[in-house]
Write a structure and sequence with these properties.
This protein is an alpha+beta fold. The protein has seven helices and six strands. Strand 1 and strand 2 form a beta hairpin. The chain is globular.
Length: 186
């Protein structure tokens, strides 16, 4: 297991704790949409399927992306904002000045600078005996929410590099779900 060190800048950005955001689905542990309280996992029974047409404004309001916060989960994957890591099968461990999430397997998000780094990690996980299709789906959903890889690493099939992964991640954690979905789409 790869255990990255705590970065002071990540701690400064992430004073948001899981207990401050009781926003997880009790069934699948995905985050809930803030405006509706409905599950963001479209495969969960708690996901709200829209029965009728809605306006663009209603769509934007109802499906504003959930925030990225310390302890946010996607199935068996947990975001550790203090260490900038995505952890499989995590448990919270009190480290004195912070609560860290440690588990069976970790992705050091600061090591992802380009799409090849991300692809390598995805296939490393896929080769594990515990990497079921649900585990892989949850991993892809987490990566998409945290890194927005199509915009940040490979939009239009082009090669992009994240120059400062820690700064990029701190910005994503600080802004996703706080200023509306249209900003994240840009």
């Amino acid at each position: 297991m790869n255990t990255p060190t705590l970065t002071k800048s990540a701690t400064a950005v992430n004073n948001n704790r899981d207990n401050e955001h009781p926003t997880s689905c009790p069934q699948c542990f995905y985050a809930l949409y803030p405006a509706t309280g409905k599950c963001s996992n479209f495969e969960c029974a708690q996901y709200h399927r829209q029965a009728a047409a809605i306006s663009f404004e209603q769509l934007i309001h109802r499906f504003q992306p959930p925030r990225l916060f310390h302890g946010r989960r996607w199935g068996s994957w947990t975001l550790d904002c203090e260490r900038l890591a995505l952890v499989f099968d995590a448990s919270p461990i009190d480290r004195g000045e912070y609560v860290g999430f440690f588990g069976h397997y970790e992705l050091d998000l600061e090591r992802i600078r380009q799409s090849s780094n991300l692809l390598d990690f995805i296939f490393q996980v896929r080769g594990k005996a515990w990497a079921t299709s649900v585990v892989m789906r949850d991993l892809i959903e987490a990566i998409d929410d945290i890194l927005a890889p199509q915009a940040s690493l490979c939009s239009g099939g082009g090669h992009k590099v994240i120059a400062d992964p820690a700064k990029f991640l701190q910005h994503r954690i600080a802004t996703v779900g706080t200023d509306g979905p249209m900003r994240d789409a840009a």
